[in-house]
Amino acid sequence: MSLPNEWRKEWGVLLIAALVALPLFTPRLYAADELKYVSHLRSVYFDGDLTYDNDYYLFIERDPVAYGWVHSLADSPTQTGRFLNDAPIGAPLLWAPFYLVADIVVVAANALGSEIPRDGISQPYVWAISIGSLFWGMIGLALIYRACRLFFGRWASQLALLGIWFASALVFYLYITPPMAHANSIFAVALFTWLWLRNRDRQRTVREWMGLGAAAGLMVLVRELNWLMMIPLLFDEAMKVLGRLRAGDARRLFEWVPGYATYGVSLAVVVAPQFVVYNALHGAFSPTPFVTEKFSYPQFALDVLFSAFHGLYSWTPVTLLATAGLYFVGRRHPVVAAGLGLAFVAQVLVVGSYLTWWGGAAFGARRFLNCTPLLALGLAALLDEVPTSKRRHATATIAFLIIWNFGLAIQYATGMIPRDQPVAMTTIAVNQFTEVPRRGANVLWRFFTDRWSLVENSPRESS
Predict the structure, then answer these.
(1) Which of 154, 156, 221, 250 matches a 20 to 30 Å C-alpha distance to 361?
(2) The whole model's pTM is what?
(3) Number of structural domains, the chain?
(4) Domain contains 85
(5) What residues does 83 pair with on adjacent strands?
(6) Does the CA dihedral 396-172-97-115 come out positive or negative?
(7) How many CB atoms sit inside 10 A of residue 208's CB?
(8) Are 30 and 457 in contact (CB under 8 A)?
(9) Where are the alpha helices (DSSP H) in 22-89?
């Protein structure tokens, strides 16, 4: 039976893109922060505790060189006698069903004569968490598309999603480095954003407020920076309250109290386990000082956007178009645009306050991946303004930015540019037009025949 014609028009292009991109999928644990996320899951599942020294030493024993930095965690007990793990617990929770299936497969295979290590970090488990990230990331992309379609046409929404998907760091952290938390973060923020937007023009039921609060809690469980992604909802509701007050209709505000209270309680219930983990690990219901001590004031805000050292706009220019597109969101939905803009500015200021604002050996400005839904909305709004006669030019522009991003990935993977050191934009640009075309075919061949030679463990990334 053929798919309904309308469904094909809506989802066909995106489904084809997802299938074509699947060969990029590279399940592997790198020597970076994903080891902390995996340790959360492994420790609870296999040991039933939150003591990570044995989990850390598993990695060290596997590769003492690549995972040597883990000694700084395994040999440094906190004041509670446990061991530092500053990674939030949301991604491990989302991986848990896939991890359970992997363990069942390992047990069954070993019962049939295989000798797969049932240690929680062997290949079946790595595949499980990688597939989990890809699954949740793809659900997130679908939700982002649905959010765009609430306001904008099909062509603009599809092209915007493809642009954000393949012309930004998203493609790298969705396919090449899936054990990081970013794909899960995109899902959680997309879920929250979609739930907010789809019924913002009417009074929500208590059940809807409960779901929205739970989605907000999940965002925070996955990445702490996602607190900022609640700003659009809070601003939206503040404007509604202000409107009631200006209209002299303050009494009706009491009708909203149960919904607001439900949202707060639901958020608190979902987030509470993270604070329990904080307290168990270092004796305080707050993030570890290891994280908080890295913040100062937003002295690096401009660097975060424009620096050649993983700057958001300089590395992924599609995000500049997307940010500019928030203006066109504002022409139709000013409150929505203002809320999204406030969230983006807050993200810039907070990341710009981080002493390691460049994100370690990151591919681009990875800390902004939680802004994917708002950037997609901005890009869709911009593209929706393009006249029909100019759509080919817009499509060609997005295609060029995708090619640019893949060229940048080739430079990053092959060492043409350093992963954890500043680099001049002129160097990046010259490489794009000289070295990448010359070496591109060889890199592509290596990726499909010996891709591990292109994804060697790099210096540790910081959260």
Answers:
(1) 221
(2) 0.94
(3) 1
(4) yes
(5) 77
(6) positive
(7) 17
(8) yes
(9) 34-42, 53-62, 71-74
| Domain of residue 261, residue span | 5-453
Between CA 433 and CA 33 the distance in angstroms is 33
pLDDT at 36: 93
Q: CA-CA distance, 422 to 460, in Å (whole number)? A: 16
**Residues facing 284 on adjacent strands:** none
Q: Is residue 460 part of a domain?
A: no
Average pLDDT over residues 113-119: 94
Residues 330 and 131: their CA atoms lie apart, in Å, by: 37
Rounded Cα gap, residues 50 and 40, in angstroms: 7
Q: In this structure, how many other beta carbons lie within 10 angstroms of the beta carbon of residue 60?
A: 19
Q: Residue 25: helix, strand or coil by DSSP?
A: coil
For residue 238, CA distances in Å to 255, 265, 267 come to 15, 19, 18
3-state secondary structure of 27: coil
Indicate if the pLDDT at residue 272 is higher than 90: yes
Residue 372 structure tokens: 């994917």
pLDDT of residue 3: 58
**Least trusted range by pLDDT, from 182-186, 270-274, 414-418, 432-436:** 414-418
As a whole number of angstroms, the distance between CA 104 and CA 149 comes to 40
Which tokens belong to 430?
């010259």
- Dump pLDDT digits (tens) for 19-42: 999 999 999 888 778 999 999 999
For residue range 321-340, what is the model confidence (pLDDT) as tens digits?
A: 999 999 999 999 999 999 99
Residue 49 and residue 252 in contact, taking contact as beta carbons nearer than 8 Å: no
State the pLDDT confidence band at 461, using cuts at 50, 70 and 90: very low
- Does some domain include residue 461? no
Q: Where are the beta strands (DSSP E) in 231-322?
A: none
Non-local CB neighbours of 222 within 8 Å, separated by 6+ positions:
88, 90, 91, 94, 181, 184, 185, 188
Average confidence score pLDDT of the chain: 92
User: What are the structure tokens assigned to 236, written together?
Assistant: 């939206």
Give the max Cα distance, the chain.
76
Residue 463 located in a structural domain: no
**Closest Cα partner for 277 from 200, 221, 336, 333?**
221
In angstroms, what CA-CA distances link 385 with 89, 101, 166, 300? 41, 46, 22, 33
Nearest in space to 297 (alpha carbons), one of 381, 218, 379, 355: 355
Helix orientation angle between 154-166 and 372-384, rounded to the nearest 10 degrees: 140
Tokens representing residue 271 in the block: 């987030």
Beta carbons of 30 and 62 less than 8 angstroms apart: no
